[in-house]
Amino acid sequence: MNTQTAAVKPYVIGLDLGGTNSVFGIVDARGEIKATTAIKTQGYDTAEDYVDACIEALQVIIDEVGGLELIKAMGIGAPNGNYYSGAVEFAPNLAWAHNSKVPLAKMFSERLGGIPVGLTNDANAAAVGEMTYGVARGMKNFIVLTLGTGVGSGIVINGQLVYGSDGFAGELGHVTMRRENGRLCGCGRKGCLEAYCSATGVARSAREFLEKTDEPSLLRELDPEQITSLDVSIAAGKGDALAKRIYDFTGHMLGEACADFAAFASPEAFIFFGGMTKAGDLIMEPIKKSYDEHVMPIFKGKAEFLVSGLDGSSAAVLGASAIGWEL
Amino acid sequence: MNTQTAAVKPYVIGLDLGGTNSVFGIVDARGEIKATTAIKTQGYDTAEDYVDACIEALQVIIDEVGGLELIKAMGIGAPNGNYYSGAVEFAPNLAWAHNSKVPLAKMFSERLGGIPVGLTNDANAAAVGEMTYGVARGMKNFIVLTLGTGVGSGIVINGQLVYGSDGFAGELGHVTMRRENGRLCGCGRKGCLEAYCSATGVARSAREFLEKTDEPSLLRELDPEQITSLDVSIAAGKGDALAKRIYDFTGHMLGEACADFAAFASPEAFIFFGGMTKAGDLIMEPIKKSYDEHVMPIFKGKAEFLVSGLDGSSAAVLGASAIGWEL
Questions:
Q1: Strand-strand pairing, A71-77 and A11-17
Q2: Distance (Å, rounded) from C-alpha A73 to C-alpha A94?
C-alpha cells in the first residue's frame, strides 16, 4: 500500500448544520474527531455572512490539524439539503435560506481551496455515517430512521443512498399511518408517521393519553403543555404504566411502518438514530414485536433492529463528515 | 463500431413463466420478437421434466432464428422468482416448485450451452422491460405497478432494480392501506393494497358496493360471484354510476399508495402494467387526482403517471427477455 498517498489527505470536515448550532468536526477515516468547533446558525442576514463566520471558525481547527492540504473533502448535513444541487432549499427554520436555494456546497468549496464539498439532509448524512463508521459497516441495504423533533430517514439500497429523481427521496416520516382521523402533521397533511413517532409526537400522545382517562400517572405532576418525550421516558423507567403504554403505542406504530418499508426495500437492518433511542428497550422492544406481527411472512426474521453506533453527541458531525469520504 | 461483434449474438430468450402457460420469445435489442412458442406450465412431476419440455419447445425456435450461437442470454420472469439465487422458491401455484427451491436459472443455463440465465419475478421483469424497450427508457428512478390477479411491483432506483437483502424486495402489493377492518389478503395479513386494487380486489369491491345499497346498476344483471374487473370496466364504459365509483375507489387508493411510495423513492414516474390498465382513464384519472391530494407538497407535480409501453400480449415475455440484456 502506498502509505504516502493515503497519508496525504487523511481528514474530512463534517458540518452538522442545525437550526440552532452549526457544529464542525475534522475527522479521520476511522471516525475519530481530531478537532471540533461550533458557531450559532442564526443571526446572519445573508448566506454569505453565515459562510464567512463558518470559515473563520473552521480556519482555527484546520490549522490545528495541520492545514488545508490534509483535508480531502467536506460533508454537510443540513435541513432541506439537496445532494444533487448541493443547496439548502427553502429551509423554513433558516433565516438566510428560508425563501431561496443557497448553494452551500459550492460556497464552501470556493472558500476552501476547491476541495469537493457534498451536502445532504441530516438523516441521509446519518445513514452514510452508519455505513462508514457505525453499525451498518459492510451493509448494502438498510434504513436509518432518525427519531428527533421530527422523523427523518436515510435509505441505502445496493450500497447507495437513495436520493430519487429530485434529491429529496427518503421522507419516511411522512408516510401516512392513520388515514382516518389522523393527527395534523407539520407538513400540512394528516396521519404522518412523524406526527406520532417523533419526540413531539410522543409528547402529544402523552397529552392525549392523560386526557382520555383518569388513570394515575407520574406525568400528571407536570404541566401537560410542557411534557417532553424525555419526561415520558423517565416516568416509564420508574414503572409508570401509562408512560409505558405511550412508548408501546409509539413503538407499535414504528413497527407497522417498518413492516411496510420491508415490503419496499427488504433491508437487512433498520437503524434508529437520535434522542428518542435513549429510551432503549422501552421503544425498541415494541418496535420489534409489532414488526413481527405486521411484516409479510416472507420477510419475517430477516431484518435486524439496531440503535445507531455513532457516539451520541458527535453523531451528526460524524454523519456529515462521512459524506466527504463518498465524494 | 465493430458490427461483427455486435452482430454475433443479437438475441436473448425471454420466458414468461405463468401459472398456466410458459411463453417463450426470442427477442432482439429493439424489443422485436423474432420467434415465439409456448408450453403448459403444469402437468410435470418434477422440475427436470418441466425443463425438458421447455428445452424441446425452445430448440425449435432457436433453430428458427439461426441457432444457439446467436443467443446472448436468457431471462425468466416467474412467480416467487429470486434474482440472487436464480431459483423459483416455494411457489404455491407450481406443483413442481411448491415445496422447494428450484434453481431454474442454473438448469436452463446447463441445457443451453452455458449462456447466462437470469431469473426474477414477473413484476421486476416488467420493470426491466420498460427500461429496455418501454416507456421508462432513459429513466433512472421509477416504479412499475402490475395490476393483475394480484398487485406486483418492480422498483428501479439509480438505474438498478431493487432486490433488497434477500432478493424479494418490491412487494408493494402488500403495503397496508387499511389498518382497521382491512380486507383479508391472500398473504394472510389484512388491509393490503392487493386486497383492493388487484383485478380480484375490484371484483370484491363490486360485490361490496352492490350489497351496500339498492342503487340500480348494470352489474346487478350478473351473478355477483362471477363478476370480474372487466365486467366493472365495461359497465363503467356504458356510464354505469356504481361501476364508475368502484374504479374511483380503486384509483383513489392507488393514488394514496403512490403518495407514500414517493416519500420513499421520489420516482420520476409510476408505470402501470397489466390487464386492469385497459380501463384507461377510468383508473388513471382517479389515481392522478388522489396522488395530488395525498402526496407531500415537495413532490407535487414531479412524477409522471404512465401506462406500460410494452405490447399487451407479449409484454411479459419482453420483460423477461430484458433481464437477459442486463446479464
A1: parallel
A2: 24
**Contact between B165 and A302 using a beta-carbon 8 Å cutoff:** yes
Report how far residue A125's alpha carbon sits from residue A88's, in angstroms, rounded to the nearest whole number: 14
> Helices H, strands E: what count in chain A?
10, 13
Distances (CA, A) of A208 to A120, A221, A248, B188: 35, 15, 14, 33
Q: A-contacting residues of B 130-149, CB under 8 Å?
A: 140-141
CB-based contact A296 B164, cutoff 8 Å: no
Going residue by residue through chain A (327 aa), what tens digit of pLDDT does each one get?
444 444 589 999 999 998 889 999 999 999 999 999 999 999 999 999 999 999 999 999 999 999 999 999 999 999 889 999 999 988 877 889 888 899 999 999 999 999 999 999 999 999 999 999 999 999 999 999 999 889 999 999 999 999 999 999 999 999 999 998 999 998 999 999 999 999 999 999 999 999 999 999 999 999 999 999 999 999 999 999 999 999 999 999 999 999 999 999 999 999 999 889 989 999 999 999 999 999 999 999 999 999 998 877 788 899 999 999 988
Strand boundaries in B18-137, DSSP class E:
21-28, 33-40, 71-77, 81-82, 87-89, 101-102, 117-120
Q: Which residues contact A214 (CB under 8 A, 6 or more apart)?
A: none
Cut 0.90: pTM above it? yes
Assembly ipTM: 0.92
Which grid coordinates belong to A7? 497519508
Q: Which of A176, A187, A268 sits opposite B297 (nearest CB)?
A: A187
Interface A–B counts its CB contacts (< 8 A) at: 128
Residue with cell 421509477: B142
Q: Is residue B305 exposed (0-12), middle (13-18) or buried (19+ Cβ within 10 Å)?
A: middle
| Interchain pair B264, A158: CB under 8 A | no
